[in-house]
Amino acid sequence: MKITIIGTGYVGLVTGACLAEIGNDVLCLDVDARKIAILEAGGVPIHEPGLEGVIARNRHAGRIRFTTDIEAAVAHGDIQFIAVGTPPDEDGSADLQYVLAAARNIGRTMSDFKVVVDKSTVPVGTAARVRDAIAAELRARGADVPFSVVSNPEFLKEGAAVEDFMRPDRIVLGCDDDANGRRALALMKQLYSPFNRNHERTMLMDVRSAEFTKYAANAMLATRISFMNELANLAERVGADIEAVRRGIGSDPRIGYSFLYAGCGYGGSCFPKDVQALVRTGDEHGHRLQILRAVEAVNDAQKQVLAQKITAHFGERLDDLSFAVWGLAFKPETDDMREAPSRVLVRALLQRGARVRAFDPVAVDEARRVFALDLTQEESARLDFCDSREAAADGADALVVLTEWKAFKSLDAADLKERLRRPVIFDGRNLYDPAVLAREGFDYFTIGRTHVDA
Length: 454
Ligand SMILES: NC(=O)c1ccc[n+]([C@@H]2O[C@H](COP(=O)([O-])OP(=O)(O)OC[C@H]3O[C@@H](n4cnc5c(N)ncnc54)[C@H](O)[C@@H]3O)[C@@H](O)[C@H]2O)c1
Ligand SMILES: O=c1ccn([C@@H]2O[C@H](COP(=O)(O)OP(=O)(O)O[C@H]3O[C@H](CO)[C@@H](O)[C@H](O)[C@H]3O)[C@@H](O)[C@H]2O)c(=O)[nH]1
Known about the structure:
The protein is an alpha/beta fold. It folds into 2 domains: about 1-205, 3-Layer(aba) Sandwich (Rossmann fold); about 220-445, Rossmann fold (3-Layer(aba) Sandwich). It has 18 helices and 14 strands. It has helices spanning about 10-20, 35-40, 50-60, 70-75, 95-110, 125-140, 160-165, 180-190, 205-240, 240-250, 270-285, 290-315, 340-350, 365-375, 375-380, 390-395, 415-420, 435-440, and strands spanning about 1-5, 25-30, 65, 80, 115-120, 145-150, 170-175, 200-205, 320-325, 355-360, 385, 400, 425, 445. Strand 4 (about 80), helix 5 (about 95-110) and strand 5 form a beta-alpha-beta unit. Helix 5 (about 95-110) runs parallel beside helix 6 (about 125-140), helix 9 (about 205-240) packs across helix 11 (about 270-285) and helix 9 (about 205-240) runs parallel beside helix 12 (about 290-315). Uridine-5'-diphosphate-glucose binds near residues 155, 218, 221, 266 and 268. Nicotinamide-adenine-dinucleotide binds near residues 120 and 154. Belongs to the UDP-glucose/GDP-mannose dehydrogenase family.
């Protein structure tokens, strides 16, 4: 099938690559000429495991191409996926300007039946606004071309995006129950049929429920994390170990093990903005979402917890102290720094006068870019990026772990002790065994594990 992807970010690029992989003819559009130039030259502008190989294979087979030419992109696909960003507006609601711009672009030049798919995460009612935007453009040029807007929210996780797309838990399709909607649904079912060979993963519903499902999923997952973070902070105070508690409750199939890891707060481009957006949707409809307000507040506070532990240990001012930071990306296997807890922690350390020696396996370039925006020049001068975790640790007064990269999971405690000026670790991801580190003479601070004094 002929597919156009509008927006070649994390979602659009993965969607385009994976749909090409199963044999479709995909054209990816972006307004960012830099991204398209990288892709046309055979590069990939983001770090996502497996993605480069899928794109390379399909480029060579001629199944995926990239363009900045809006008219060509609209002409190409029978199915037009809108996968542009929906960042938070000033009041936290989803900013739909990119989605609506994409819709207008479709309406401006389309000349035959189009299925327009909302892949972006958008508030309930957006499909109707997309439909109106396209219809207004068609009216303006006196054209009568049939189309239908489908909601098909995406549930992939960064760092596992290709795998998640290729093996989805479910494919949610929200379609209108009219002639064009049924025509659109038939095409969408055909497109996704390769994913349904072993069992049917497609869930059909009305458009508004499909839009809502995406926010409900992210809100539920974020709630689990804030719930565990709040309990972790209590576990420390009552002398319990949140890791034991996690295993204890996760074993109940009604609860399950996933997304129960306490840590230094959730980040990324989705949970923070989607929780906020749902809270705003509630406000707009006179329905105050109390649980999600608390989820957001707990998460904001959780991003400060490590800094509080550090100042409780070293004092409010950190002048003359140097901190090794392992992990900058908001989660492993990505270079994405959006809402990363590292942005809060590194800034807090620098504002208190410390030096920071940071290492991340893939996010350093992106970190340089975002910290240049977050920090003053004077603060930036005290932030160094290192080439390895060992180099970051050399001569630092303490180690802070912020991202659970696999490469950080095994630790040569004796070697680390040699490198650090003081044997102190603040672990935002509970990676290590407190008893082992205590034996090695470390002060080891965790999120919700009982603190074992050396
Ligand atoms: N990142 C994720 O893990 C993830 C997962 C599921 C859903 N989502 C949702 O998917 C959407 C996209 O997220 P993302 O992380 O891929 O965003 P992104 O910022 O990585 O990419 C968006 C791309 O759209 C391009 N763009 C903007 N306006 C355009 C236009 N009019 N025409 C063509 N291109 C345009 C931008 O230049 C950018 O390259 C968001 O709504 C997000 O909430 C994201
Ligand atoms: O038990 C856990 C699990 C995750 N996190 C944190 O939560 C954040 C988000 O992690 P994750 O959900 O793995 O990454 P995302 O790529 O943001 O994916 C989420 O957001 C996407 C965009 O909407 C959805 O498509 C995915 O289903 C949803 O998991 C990260 O900071 C993690 O460190 C925890 O603190 N504890």
